[in-house]
Amino acid sequence: MSSSLLVALAGQPNCGKSTVFNMLTGARQHVANYPGVTVEKKTGFFSLGDLRVELVDLPGTYSLTSYSLEERVARDFLLNDNPGVVIDVADASNLKRNLYLTIQLLEMEVPTVVALNMMDVATRRGQSLDVARLEELLGVPVVPTVAKKGEGKEAIRMAVENAHADKRVAPFVVDYGPLEPRIEDISILLGKEPTLGAQYPLRWLAVKLLEKDQEAEALLRRAHSEPQAVMDAVTKARAGFLESEGRDIERQVAYARHTAAGRIAREVVAVEEGRGRSLSDRADRFICHRVLGPVILILILLALYQVSIVFGGWLAVEVWPLWGGIENLVSDLLPEAGFIEDPLVRSLGEWVVKSMTAILNYLPIFILLFAFIAALEDSGYMPRMAFILDRLFRRFGLHGQSTLPMILGGVYVGGCAIPGVMATKAIPDERARLATILIVPMMNCLAKVPLYLILIDAYFPQAGGLAMFFIATVTLFMALPVAKALSMTVLRKKEHAPFIMEMPPYHVPTMGGVMRRSIERTWLFLKKIITVVAAVAVVVFVLINFPGLSETRAAHFAAEEKAAIDAFMAEVDKTEYKGVITRDDVLGIILFDEALKQAKVGVTDQAVSDTINARFDAANPVYSAVVRRQGDDGRTLNRELRKVISTRKQLRREIRTERFEGSFLGVLGRAIEPVTQYAGFNWRINIALLSAFAAKENSAATLGSIYGIDGSGLSVEESMKQAEAGFTPLHALALMLFMALYPPCIPTSIMVRHQANSTKWMLFSIGYQSLLGLFVAVLVFSGGSMLSLSGFQAMWAFYALCVAVTVIMALIPTREEARTTVVDGKEICKNKCS
Amino acid sequence: MTLDEMKPGARCVMVDLHTDGPLGQRLMDLGFCPGASIEVVRNAPLVDPVVLQLDGYHVSIRHDEAKYVEVKHQ
């Protein structure tokens, strides 16, 4: 008989919980989010004989109160999902603090197994642990493990099996000292509800209620028939305790648990005397050094940039044929192209696939980026990074941990806002987290770069390097003041958390762990993005293709098509192919020609080329004769065919442009021209910018299609310069700055919604960035025109302005600073005397 | 005196905590309890925050938060 068992894995941050999780479940795991919140939920499976075990990795928490989202998630899971066994991972090298959580778990009276992890670290630090004595004191099985080497796996499995079979839980009792009589009173009161005791340990519930834990209160209201009476008694007990002991109950409870943890730790851990400073501490002397620290930080960031963006970018180019292959495969499967207009299914299908491959193109970059980040996380460097930069970022309403999201977003050039927004998850301060989410899209993601390059090549050819430096760094000086402004205004009322961060000892990351996490996150990212992109692509397709051509224009193009075919047929009739090639064959020959070209892409070997030719000859000798110029007639017709192909390309381009201009998006682009003209944008630019909303790459691609690059042999830069004769470098500058501040693309917006957990913030993010971008573009263009600055002068004038604003914003004290400096002694008194 | 007044290298013993709510809870969870021995390890490159050693591990807090921890010299 097979049955299943739910096991929760709990533990404090940095105790090696994930390693234990991986050790137990191997590759059989699944990452998602807890419903409704952004906390990651990792689930894995393993089997114990007939028993199928579902292991849920709870978020790492120091305690089980309800002050942070992670704690609430962990506690709610333990309470509501009724895990059969809890594995509590404790860091053996840091036993006292880890026992604090263990004690809270034991008080909940769930069958618990303690995995005493990182035994090797403890030994290295000269600590020896009496495991048998610990088992005795805690009353639950304790299994020593070194999870990163896989040691202790079998022992934990056995302990879980036994705990599940046994089910008896010896309650662990903490001595709460002067609080004991009040706990007793409340427990008795709770015990009057006969069913309650069967569901929850009464003593635990009593302590929680006295601690003023909101979930416990909610639980009481659900499960007790007279909750108010209990609550009144609790309130009275709290007031009474404060009066008699001079401290509140939360503090008494925490102190008592610490005392208990300390007592156990003292009894179990023996520390060798005369140990010097740990290796980590010595490393920190350099890594957190006043001068060396920031230098090392910059070097690490440069390495990150090199590995992920430069090497990853190269890799992306190498991998591209794969995505190109998928595009070709799909276009082979779709209905055949038409002469001037393709069937709807084909154009839509190609559009959706192209939208997805545009994102997939970044895959190598993401894998490397995530791997690098995972290595940094495992090594323990992340908190140091936050530590070094916190002071700087705090001045702008951000957090030391905002560093990573901004780097991912592309602090210099070449990030992506999606993983950037994803990485804000780790920031504990809600206000700083939202501020970070709102400014990450202002960084320079990879997809903004093509547009920058086009504009710089076209309008700042002599100062290309400087212009690139300008646009790459000015974004930071725009983002920081904006972050400060946001946290002083719209985010004013958001929860502000203290900066308290453990600095774990350094670890050497394991290759397996890094790869696993990197692939895990990439997969999560892909799943989220691909679905959204596919859906959005359809909507955008409609917006840029409909309502479509007017009847007169359609008739005009049809006439052009007929004329081109007529001309070709006239030539056919002069050759031996008269009657063999009919009007209906023309399109077939063109597609045959394309197929042959496609087949020969990348072929350099003559023998291979011959085989392909033979295959095409066999498939259709007549078409092949024309396409491969066989015989005099073949050569003549091929010349004519080239003309038809060229006309076809021309017509298709014209149709595309006209349809685009007349589309919903095109109409919108024209409609906003009266406003955007102050920023120097005409309707063509507006359309390019609007289409970038789906994905930033579109801006360059759309400009390309508007200026009709294919066929003419001119680059986008050249055709743009030709088409927009009145364009100056000032126009280009305004456009670049607008793109820099551009609202997040749709996939990023979805991620913003997800991480901020509200549609409101997503809309806000889109709205304020559009307005800000427009404001800056108007400022630079109209201001620059008025002062008759050249594009280059305006560029550096704007730079100076941004730096000045950044400095001024940094000097404005935050609300917390203002409060603590003014109140200082008084506030201390308020708490003490209350 | 309070913890933010301690210079790097100083060792002290915690006397009391003058804040409640999330900050107080967080500090208590991390082991800031009366009698705990605290060593001020080093300041960040920009002076704030500060790294402390407590119960054998390192924790970093801002000076603004260290203000609430009352300590005495060891």
From TrEMBL, chain A:
Location of the FeoB-type G domain: 4-166
Chain sites annotated for binding GTP: 11-18, 36-40, 57-60, 117-120
Membrane topology: Multi-pass membrane protein
Alphabetized UniProt keyword annotations: Cell inner membrane, Cell membrane, GTP-binding, Ion transport, Iron, Iron transport, Magnesium, Membrane, Metal-binding, Nucleotide-binding, Transmembrane, Transmembrane helix, Transport
GO CC list: plasma membrane
GO molecular function: ferrous iron transmembrane transporter activity; GTP binding; metal ion binding
Residue ranges of the TM segments: 291-317, 356-376, 396-422, 434-460, 466-486, 525-546, 730-750, 762-782, 794-812
Residues forming coiled coils: none
Residues holding Mg(2+) 2: 25-26
Positions contributing to Mg(2+) 1 binding: 22
Localization, UniProt: Cell inner membrane
Keyword Transcription: no
Family (UniProt): Belongs to the TRAFAC class TrmE-Era-EngA-EngB-Septin-like GTPase superfamily. FeoB GTPase (TC 9.A.8) family.
Function per UniProt: Probable transporter of a GTP-driven Fe(2+) uptake system.
Protein name: Ferrous iron transport protein B
Native organism: Pseudodesulfovibrio alkaliphilus
Automatic annotation (TrEMBL), chain B:
Molecular function GO terms recorded: transition metal ion binding
A Pfam family the protein falls into: FeoA
Keyword terms: Iron
Superkingdom assignment: Bacteria
SUPFAM superfamilies, A to Z: C-terminal domain of transcriptional repressors (SSF50037)
Domain (Ferrous iron transporter FeoA-like): residue spans on this chain: 1-73
PANTHER family named among the record's database cross-references: FE(2+) TRANSPORT PROTEIN A
This protein's name: Iron transporter FeoA
Organism: Pseudodesulfovibrio alkaliphilus
